[in-house]
Write a structure and sequence with these properties.
The structure holds 2 protein chains of 2 kinds.
Chain A lengths: L18 H15 L2 H4 L14 E8 L5 E2 L2 E2 H14 L3 E13 L4 H18 L2 E10 L7 E11 L15 E4 L5 H10 L16 H9 L4 E5 L5 H13 L2 E5 L7 H10 L13 E4 L4 H9 L8 E7 L6 E4 L5 E3 L13
Parallel strand pairs in A: 4-5, 9-12
Antiparallel strand pairs in A: 1-6, 2-3, 4-6, 7-10, 7-11, 8-10, 9-11, 12-13
Helix pairs in contact in A: 1-4, 3-4
Chain B lengths: L1 H5 L3 H14 L6 E7 H9 L10 E8 L1 H4 L2 H12 L4 E4 L14 H6 L3 E4 L3 H10 L5 E7 L4 H14 L4 E7 L2 H10 L8 E4 L2 H6 L5 H5 L5 E3 L4 H16 L5 E3 L11 H10 E3 L2 E4 L3 E4 L3 E3 L8 H5 L14 H5 L31 H9 L5
Parallel strand pairs in B: 1-2, 1-7, 3-4, 3-5, 5-6, 7-8, 8-9
Antiparallel strand pairs in B: 10-13, 11-12
Helix pairs in contact in B: 2-12, 3-16, 8-13
The chains are: A alpha+beta, B alpha/beta.
Bound molecules: iron/sulfur cluster.
Iron/sulfur cluster binds next to helix 15 of chain B.
Chain lengths: 340, 369
């Protein structure tokens, strides 16, 4: 039977393993995501032999709303996992995607999500090679949850880890912070601005390749997603047993995001990003690395924002535009709503 | 954003800091209290103490709504939520304030109480409209800034005949708290106050006259932006140096001598003075808080559900009282940063971003390690 992709809805039997499920997979998922491995139609994808160290990462996506300016849960599910593999200095190759669908979810929306996922995967140059679909009763999910797992191959000789930051190292940021978090929050709070705030959701593997090609001595790369810049820097400082000093005025923030933060009483340093990375590199390589980043479309607004210092308390400190000092602490207090 | 940037200009800040440094007279200390938690937050968030000469010490005041609420008040709200099964709603910070028996409203929620965060009292009204078969209680807290919106909501509830809505009223007043600070026997010596920003937009600058006239303390009302605070400190230094004690207004863009008459009339229509009210740290102060006028008595949750206020002492290790009176600094509390952190607050001053302990922990603890 042909699925009614215009008015149809997800039904319990779409997850039952029977014919309805086969139709859904064939007419919706396989159609959008088609590639030879997926087309094998077996329980698992058999992939060609890979040489080098493998990097693997997984991430669940529960963002609400499912569609937001600059992306949707489909593209986000690709970018989130691809970026986690890429920041390890690896080239992401394959993705597995697992969908939890809520009964009654419009098939048209599902199609939009899967097609967006296909476009994101193509842009990031990865293949979705295997997947799974489950359906839960109405009220037991929130439309769609997507878990993706990515596998990639690490570049030879590249060793990146959050424990490698050393005093004197420079801290770089690939662009403006808080765009994704505020895009989601402004949708939810029903805030409207002259120009809509657009999520920065993007694949970072291309930018990272350029950074690796530059030959800069990179210590660590990390994408500051949940918890934002502040949380990620604190993680890195703790892992490496160092402190950090940032220059608040050097941290790029879009004026509209800054204004929205002001209005909602939020700090952009704690808002999620889905297309930004933090790089820590040897001091002498900071300028060439910055130039390499700025040549890539996803690094055009890159900046050197601070340096690693010795500090047994592992404080991330910043000099404010006023000239005073303060800590940029771990996120605490109320958890923010579901943003990724 | 333009408007805000004007008050955060780094070059201007350095100019003001230089002016302050130039005016400070050698050999004498200056002890100023910023009454409001909003100012405490600004000072910590922008690291303003780094811009001030050592001779100037900023002392955090009690102007943090959740900080001054004693444990017994939160206990009342928890009893309503757990025993009377009402929908208890309040502002986010209130939910994390530690109460008796290791509870907080958030922990009561985990035990099954229906506790909701609202961003404005109007959200509480909406909850009442949407849940006609449930009792909805709004835990109202705050100084004169949040009182007018509560007054509007009370009138609205009365007009709509929203019989399932009521108020646990904990609105407090600024001037009595300032009196209490100055009158406290063990009180800290002060040379002046950075006066409230938003509170003063409502009550005006006049209510501070007695502090200048009778106590000889300069008061400079200031906005919450970093340049406002620095400008106010400069004005305080100048008053101190010339031996003046006046009420000055740095926040002229929002504050007038009379304040907002409409808001005052509204408050007066809905609320009257309580004979006395217990504050955390400041003790029981006469005529320092508000209750609903008899005309609105039906909306009073304390009466509706018969929840009496029972005074409960603070945790023994907690120094919140001394901190709220300006006698101690956060780092002088034995459990600051160890047993008491923003993630696991023991005292109320560690809860809100405006609390002295939370502000020091979050932004400034590198200074005291
Ligand atoms: S550190 Fe905690 S317990 Fe100590 S005074 Fe501050 S809030 Fe109270």
């Amino acid at each position: 039977m042909k699925l009614d992709l215009r008015h149809g809805r997800v039904e319990m039997n779409h997850g039952s393993g029977g014919r309805a499920m086969a139709e859904l997979i064939e007419q919706l998922f396989a159609k959008a995501l088609s590639n030879d491995y997926l087309a094998q139609g077996d329980d698992g994808a058999v992939l060609p032999a890979m040489s080098g160290r493998l990097v693997m990462s997984t991430d669940s996506h529960v963002v609400s709303p499912l569609f937001f300016p600059g992306g949707d849960i489909g593209s986000l599910a690709v970018h989130g996992t691809v970026n986690d593999v890429a920041v390890m200095g690896a080239k992401p190759l394959y993705l597995a995607a697992s969908f939890i669908l809520e009964e009654g979810f419009p098939l048209a929306d599902l199609q939009r999500i899967v097609e967006s996922m296909a476009r994101a995967a193509a842009a990031a140059d990865v293949l979705v090679v295997t997947g799974d679909t489950k359906v839960v009763e109405k009220g037991k999910g929130d439309g769609v949850f997507i878990t993706t797992t990515s596998v990639g191959v690490a570049r030879d000789g590249v060793e990146l880890s959050g424990n490698r930051a050393r005093p004197g190292d420079k801290i770089l940021l690939s662009g403006t912070i808080g765009d994704h978090g505020m895009a989601i929050l402004s949708q939810r709070e029903g805030l409207s601005f002259k120009a809509p705030i657009v999520s920065d959701s993007a694949p970072l593997n291309g930018l990272i390749e350029c950074m690796l090609d530059s030959g800069a001595q990179l210590r660590a790369l990390r994408d500051p997603t949940r918890g934002g810049l502040a949380t990620t820097l604190n993680e890195l400082a703790t892992q490496s047993g160092v402190g950090m000093r940032l220059d608040e005025a050097a941290i790029p923030v879009k004026p509209v995001v800054a204004a929205a933060c002001e209005f909602l009483g939020l700090d952009p340093a704690y808002l999620a990003n889905e297309g930004k990375l933090i790089a820590i590199c040897a001091p002498a390589d900071a300028e060439p690395l910055l130039n390499a980043m700025r040549r890539h479309p996803f690094g055009r607004e890159a900046a050197i924002v601070g340096e690693v210092v010795e500090d047994r308390h592992r404080f991330v400190q910043m000099t404010t535009p006023m000239g005073g000092r303060r800590i940029l602490d771990w996120l605490s207090g109320e958890p923010l709503p579901r943003i990724c | 954003m333009k408007y805000i940037d004007e008050f955060r200009d780094g070059a201007l800040a350095r100019q003001l800091a230089a002016a302050i440094a130039a005016e400070v007279m050698g050999g004498r200390p200056y002890r100023f209290m910023e009454f409001c938690g909003g100012h405490t937050h600004t000072i910590s968030r922008y690291g303003l103490t780094d811009l001030l000469p050592d001779a100037i010490r900023m002392i955090h005041g009690p102007g943090c709504p959740v900080c001054v609420l004693p444990i017994g008040r939160i206990d009342q709200a928890i009893r309503l939520a757990l025993e009377q099964r009402v929908i208890l709603c309040s502002y986010g910070d209130c939910l994390r304030v530690p109460a008796s028996g290791g509870l907080s409203l958030l922990k009561a929620k985990a035990q099954g109480a229906d506790v909701r965060i609202v961003y404005a009292v109007t959200d509480a009204l909406e909850l009442a409209r949407r849940n006609p078969d449930r009792q909805v209680v709004f835990l109202a807290i705050g100084f004169e800034t949040t009182t007018p919106p509560t007054a509007v909501a009370v009138r609205q509830a009365e007009a709509e005949g929203l019989a399932n809505f009521s108020l646990l009223c904990n609105h407090v007043l600024t001037p009595p708290a300032m009196h209490a600070i100055l009158d406290h026997p063990a009180g800290t010596r002060l040379d002046g106050f950075v006066g409230p920003a938003h509170v003063s937009t409502v009550i005006g600058s006049r209510p501070y006259e007695p502090f200048a006239r009778e106590y000889g303390k300069p008061v400079v009302i200031a906005g919450f932006e970093p340049l406002d605070v620095l400008q106010a400190i400069l004005m305080l230094v100048r008053q101190t140096n010339s031996g003046r004690a006046e009420v000055e207004n740095e926040f002229v863009r929002a504050v007038t001598p009379e304040g907002n008459r409409k808001a005052q009339a509204l408050m007066d229509e809905v609320f009257e003075l309580r004979d006395s009210f217990e504050w955390r740290g400041l003790g029981t102060l006469p005529r320092s808080a508000l209750k609903l006028r008899p005309r609105f008595a039906a909306l009073d949750a304390e009466a509706r559900f018969g929840v009496e206020y029972v005074a409960v002492p603070d945790n023994k290790a907690c120094e919140c009282g001394a901190i709220l009176r300006g006698e101690k600094r956060p780092a002088e509390c034995r459990i600051f940063g160890s047993a008491c952190t923003p993630d696991h607050p023991v005292g109320a001053c560690m809860v809100s971003a405006e609390g002295a302990c939370a502000a020091h922990y979050t932004y400034g603890r590198f200074r005291s390690v």
